[in-house]
Design a protein that fits this description.
Strand content: 15-25%
CATH class: Alpha Beta
Oligomer: single chain
Strand order of the largest sheet: 2-1-3-4-5
Number of helices: 5
Number of domains: 1
Radius of gyration: 14 Å
CATH architecture: 3-Layer(aba) Sandwich
Amino acid sequence: MTNDASADPLKILVYSDDASTRSQVILALGRRPHPDLPVAEYVEVATEPVVLQQMDTGTIDLAILDGEAVPAGGMGIAKQMKDEIYNCPPILVLTGRPQDAWLATWSRADAAVPHPIDPLLIAEVVVRLLASRVPAAG
């Protein structure tokens, strides 16, 4: 893939009830998480119903869900989406701590990154997850 600016942007859903968590994720990933990927367009979501509505559009390339969100945690939402959405896009769950990674496995999330957000780690995981959606990436 080239750095063609005309490529369709990647739509990345970022869910958390905490606006600062959403901002940290978006700042960590930036406008283009990797030179081989198209520009990212972020869809910020604060509630579970809007997550489900956005996911039902079929336009989301990656969902990043805060496992610590209240009242609906990202792990429960991830499990529901993996059970209900055919060809569900990759899901990255933000866990409260590294020891909670097993919960992300239960949720059927494709990957987990612990709080606090490590910009290098989250970018590496996002690029890996998006490589399956953008064949020439990575």
